[in-house]
User: What shape does this take?
Amino acid sequence: MNLNLTTALARFLIFPGLLFAVPAAWFLLWVERKAVALMQGRIGPPFMQPFFDFVKLLGKDTPPRVGAAGMLMKLWPLIAVSAAAGAVGLLPVLPSSGGFEGDLILLLALLELPSMCIIAAGFSSRSIFGEIGSAREAVLSVAYNVVFLLAIVSIAASQHTFRLEALAQLPASPLRWLGVLAILVCLPAKLHLNPFSLPNAEQEIYSGPMTEYAGPELAMWELSHGLEWVAATGLVATLAAPHVGLVWLAVLLFLALSFAVVLLLSVVAAATARLAIDTTVRFYWQVTLIFAVLAVSSALFMRLLS
Amino acid sequence: MNLWNKLMCYSRRRSPWLFHMNGGSCNGCDIELIASLTPRYDAEQLGVRLEGSPRHADILCVTGPITHNAVNAIKTVYGQVCGPKAVVAIGSCPATTNVFIDSRTLDGPLNKHLPVDVFVPGCPPRPDAIILGVAKAAEILANRAANKIPVEPVVMALAGSECGEACACAATPDADKVAVPAANEVKP
Assistant: This one.
């Protein structure tokens, strides 16, 4: 089944797009904060906390933004939110929900866009802390993206398709588990979690690229961060979930797997401290690159054999 | 008041983000402010988050007796906090300059420079008193933003057994010696 305009809009706006993804984003943000709190022996924020934060930020003033740089500063969070929502909308949660050849590549591009926006936002804010944060984000994204992309390419190449739905339906091979593991290693860096929370390193460089943002713009950043959570954990859930025909079971499985990934990432974040930028980059280039190159070469080998 | 305004007022009360500003403090109050976020007191239950940037904050927490050096920094940071905002003076120093009174290096107390909403006296105040002060400040901030009326500054009792009850003697350094049992609203 191919994607026509109606189903595409329905997927972007309703499920798994905005109508589902925004509450899911708040839920995952809460799960992350609550899991970290429980790990630290605290009670943690109430269930509605990310929603309260969002509403409160909508009601705050913003400093005046002038000129082209000011307009860009207003624009970046909106681009980030729409890219992240688009990425969530592409996830094949419902069985036979449609898709097109190459939607995996579009998903990767949309997943990358928010971090590009963060880099641009930090530089256009003209704050020294924002610029340091953006530089760190840029270095970090070069480091982890090689591994992230190689892992996904190896999965796609071994199974002869760049179509998400087809990938989700094929039975998982050992190589796919290797790829999922490599993606999981990249997610803390992608979502700015400990031990790779360098770009927004709180207290160290104030708030990194977000330092100059306030009010509704900051609310949009929070939302795009939450949507990135949904998209990234959803990608792992899509790749790791066994294929089931029943709609409600597929949705339930997707949610349960996303939840498990969030818990895993939060536990890792709570148990580790922030690493320095050179250690992080060395980790991704030396340790995981070997891992990803192995995955790609075995994928190509499998492809030659078949 | 329509539904959106009610929700906004409620959200403002439930999500106070703090920015911590040191105005020449001895570090005692700063440690107690951090202690209020630790597992024993866990201010995050009230939605409190210590933010890295003043732009993100709702409540400016100032410690210390305000030295000449700190005055301009505090005014700048107060300007950087986006409205609606509130100021909490943590400890006896920003309220009265405490034992440093009459020092020629000082330009305090804090309310000479900023409109302070809540004073939390103590040397240092207990973390539960700080949490209560922050909660009170969030309430003041929400009410002020909703009704557009000026609110008089509130002085918390030492451990804040009565939220919002202004303690007249607390503005003097002697108030530190008032022993009040620990608050039972904020238990670990």
Notes: The mean pLDDT of chain A is 86. The first helix of chain A runs from residue 5 to 13. DSSP finds eleven helices and no strands in chain A. Chain A has one domain: 5-305.
